[in-house]
Design a protein that fits this description.
Blueprint (H helix, E strand, L loop, with lengths): L3 H4 L3 H10 L2 H5 L4 E2 L10 H14 L9 H20 L8 E4 L2 H16 L5 E5 L8 H10 L2 E5 L9 H7 L4 E7 L11 H10 L3 E5 L11 H4 L3 E4 L11 E5 L1 H6 L10 E4 L4 E3 L13 H17 L1 H19 L5 E3 L11 E6 L4 H10 L2 E2 L1 E3 L4 H7 L4 E5 L6 H17 L2
Parallel strand pairs: 1-13, 3-4, 3-5, 5-6, 6-7
Antiparallel strand pairs: 2-8, 7-8, 9-10, 11-12, 12-15, 14-15
Helix pairs in contact: 4-12, 5-12, 6-7, 13-16
Bound molecules: 4'-deoxy-4'-aminopyridoxal-5'-phosphate (PMP).
């Protein structure tokens, strides 16, 4: 797999070669996996990295003063450096390991939020937020008597940016916004939005769970105050999450969980916290998961995030064209592939999404059905549930045609 980006010229060749790197496809012949938006499959290099930790280097991190513990601590910290480089953070101190995006955002709400949001303050969220970037803020607002306001989504699946502008008042203390919607596929112009928010001294929390896996993300360029994402959606083991925050804010924040590993000194009455980022990492972390994440970053970097995005743009173009040929099918997100990722939530007249999921599964196509943890968005769209097909670097053009053929078959059965 080494130097894949250099060795292989065309995207088609890349995808065919890439598929071979994922044992799941060898062990499940004919599988069309279209649920990477929930969690991705893992390449052999990641599986091997985890196996190698157990077989050669495993010990708890940052505790032992023996060789094995030093080795595992070094590998663990190497991933932190890789993450910082991958998202162009200015320092690895800004990278906190959590267990998923949900925990990252809860950490923020119950530390920075608890200390900075007051009665009557406004927290601005968008209508397209995943529950993970909505409920922690709603819960905080409830406890602090703060006010939640929503930036609406237009019929075309894009944020109403005029409305957003008019909502950015001096009473707003935080804007919580998805970089890319897990339902609509919409990629929000977060850089411009952050700049506008900063002019009003509003902090911005960006949910990058559907962004970092799919296109290059540069945190110094975006200038987000907070940014969260989930390695399990980018080829890494599950059980690891990332919270990025600006260094000066992290320095000022209280810890979320307290206990072992996050202290500098503890007496009978007092405790001093460790420096950042360790102050936010209490207890034994997911050592093998973090090290496996390092291998996933190496893999993604060797393919190239620009190449991955190019591939997904092509998939998006073809998928939008082919899905629109299925009679009675309505796609919920933007209908053009500009600023849009390869996630397609749709309804098909007369077929409940759960029946759809079952029937597609019978044809070896794995997709997701439901509200995708974005119930308020579905309510705004006037529907209860959708069927969602989400693509990644190992999906081919042929996967789209297989999906479309299967949808036509389902349509015939429900006629
Ligand atoms: N935000 C978005 C946009 C997501 O797609 C997801 C995962 N579906 C999450 C947050 C939550 O991620 P996790 O389950 O890893 O906490």
């Amino acid at each position: 797999m080494s130097n894949l980006g250099e060795q292989i010229k065309t995207m088609k060749k890349i995808t065919t070669a890439i598929k071979k790197d994922f044992p799941i496809f060898k062990n499940n012949k004919g599988l069309v996996f279209l649920d990477s938006g929930a969690s991705t499959q893992k390449p052999k290099v990641v599986i091997d990295a985890v196996k190698e930790v157990y077989e050669k280097h495993y010990a708890n991190v940052h505790r032992g003063i023996y060789k094995l513990s030093e080795q595992s601590s070094e590998l663990y910290e190497q991933t932190r450096e890789k993450v910082a480089k991958f998202i162009n953070a200015s320092s690895e101190k800004q990278i906190i390991f959590t267990k998923n995006t949900t925990e990252s955002i809860n950490l923020l709400a119950f530390t920075w939020g608890m200390d900075n949001i007051k009665k009557g303050d406004i927290i601005l969220v968008t209508e397209m937020e995943h529950h993970a970037n909505l409920l922690p803020w709603r819960e905080l607002a409830k406890r602090k008597k703060a006010i939640i306001k929503y930036v609406p989504v237009k019929k075309n699946g894009r944020l109403d940016l005029n409305k957003l502008d008019s909502l950015l008042s001096s009473k707003v203390k935080l804007l919580a916004i998805a970089h890319m919607s897990n339902v609509l596929g919409t990629i929000n112009p977060v850089k411009k939005i952050i700049a506008k928010a900063h002019k009003k001294k509003i902090k911005v929390m960006v949910d990058g769970a559907q962004a970092v896996p799919h296109f290059p993300v540069d945190l110094q360029d975006l200038d987000a105050d907070f940014y969260a994402f989930s390695p399990h959606k980018m080829l890494a083991p599950s059980g690891v999450g990332i919270l990025y925050a600006k260094e000066e804010i992290l320095e000022s924040m209280n810890p979320f969980l307290v206990g072992g590993g996050m202290i500098a000194n503890v007496t009978h009455q007092d405790a001093e916290w460790n420096e950042i980022p360790f102050k936010f990492e209490a207890g034994t972390p997911n050592i093998e998961g973090v090290i496996g994440f390092g291998a996933a970053i190496d893999y993604l970097s060797s393919v190239g995030m620009k190449n991955i995005f190019k591939h997904e743009q092509k998939i998006t173009k073809i998928a939008l064209r082919e899905l629109s040929k299925v009679e009675g099918l309505k796609i919920m997100g933007p209908s053009d592939n500009k600023d849009r990722g390869a996630v397609f939530s749709f309804v098909l007249n007369g077929v409940h999404p759960h029946d759809m999921a079952t029937m597609l599964d019978e044809q070896n196509i794995a997709i997701r059905a439901g509200h995708h943890c974005a119930q308020p968005l579905h309510q705004s769209l006037g529907i209860e549930a959708t069927t969602r097909a989400s693509f990644y670097l190992y999906n081919t053009e042929e996967d789209i045609y297989k999906l479309v053929r299967a949808l036509k078959k389902v349509k015939k059965i429900f006629k």
